[in-house]
């Protein structure tokens, strides 16, 4: 019976992800389960942060997050420079939040030797810092996305409500003059809680992020204190940063 239950929920997730939205009727036809049984399945999957319940069915929470290894290979040299510059901003004794991006992974690689508290929802970052005796590491629980190695969902956001950090370092999927974007609404939910938990917000961005939006809006520029960029930003972006009081930090090539 447990095998059938797991198979049914796998079918439910596959249908919702492939279609974006699936009605109770279509899920019932695909699984052979009653609508009352499916409502219980959807309630559990919603609590786990895997889908969002909606009237008459359920919706996928966003675009599929790109696998971690694929994202890490993109603009790797730029990400290394961004990570090194951002790590220089972090001072011993701070409590630092690191999101689950591949650029923040490069920040983690450069924190060795600093006495810090590091809070993260990234399993790859945990694997790098777990052996550093001078770093007190706090891993946020939640639903672990296997492709990305980050925890998301209600358990993650609830844990963040009890965290207070000096600094948050995060990367965004895209940036427009309106603000920051990312590709998944659950990812944005967690990052918004991180923003609320930190005194200073530091954004890392390579040149591919300028003028590019994603599915989910994260925050406006008023929420950002610093941005670390690889090379001088386009002239029109200088006005955006100046208007919102965002300090610009440049990498060293």
From TrEMBL:
Range of residues in the leader sequence: none
SMART domains named among the record's database cross-references: DeoRC (SM01134), HTH_DEOR (SM00420)
Pfam families xref list: DeoRC, HTH_DeoR
Single Gene Ontology MF annotation: DNA-binding transcription factor activity
Top-rank lineage group of the source organism: Bacteria
Domain HTH deoR-type residues, every copy: 5-60
Keyword Chloroplast carried by entry: no
Keyword Repressor annotated: yes
Key words, A-Z: DNA-binding, Repressor, Transcription, Transcription regulation
InterPro entries hit by this protein: Carb_Metab_HTH_regulators (IPR050313), DeoR-like_C (IPR014036), DeoR_HTH (IPR001034), NagB/RpiA_transferase-like (IPR037171), Tscrpt_reg_HTH_DeoR_CS (IPR018356), WH_DNA-bd_sf (IPR036390)
Regions annotated as coiled coil: none
Protein name: HTH-type transcriptional regulator UlaR
Phylogenetic classification of the source organism: Bacteria, Pseudomonadati, Planctomycetota, Planctomycetia, Planctomycetales
């Amino acid at each position: 019976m447990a095998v059938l239950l797991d198979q049914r929920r796998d079918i439910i997730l596959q249908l919702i992800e492939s279609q974006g939205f699936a009605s109770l009727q279509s899920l019932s036809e695909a699984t052979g389960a009653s609508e009352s049984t499916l409502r219980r399945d959807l309630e559990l999957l919603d609590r786990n942060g895997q889908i969002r319940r909606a009237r008459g069915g359920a919706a996928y929470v966003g675009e599929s997050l790109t696998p971690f290894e694929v994202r890490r290979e993109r603009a790797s040299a730029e990400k290394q420079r961004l990570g090194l510059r951002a790590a220089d901003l972090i001072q011993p004794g701070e409590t630092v939040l690191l999101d689950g991006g591949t650029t923040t992974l490069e920040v983690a690689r450069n924190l060795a030797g600093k006495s810090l508290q590091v809070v993260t929802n990234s399993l790859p970052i945990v694997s790098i810092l777990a052996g550093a005796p001078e770093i007190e590491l706090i891993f946020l629980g939640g639903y672990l996305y296997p492709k990305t190695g980050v925890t998301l969902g209600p358990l993650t956001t609830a844990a963040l409500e009890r965290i207070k950090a000096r600094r948050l370092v995060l990367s965004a999927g895209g940036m427009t003059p309106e603000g920051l974007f990312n590709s998944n609404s659950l990812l944005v939910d967690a990052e918004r809680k991180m923003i609320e938990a930190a005194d200073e917000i530091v954004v890392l961005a390579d040149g591919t992020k300028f003028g590019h939006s994603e599915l989910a809006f994260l925050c406006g520029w008023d929420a950002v204190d610093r941005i670390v960029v690889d090379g001088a930003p386009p002239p029109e972006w200088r006005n955006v940063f100046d208007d919102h009081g965002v300090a610009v930090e440049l990498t060293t090539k």
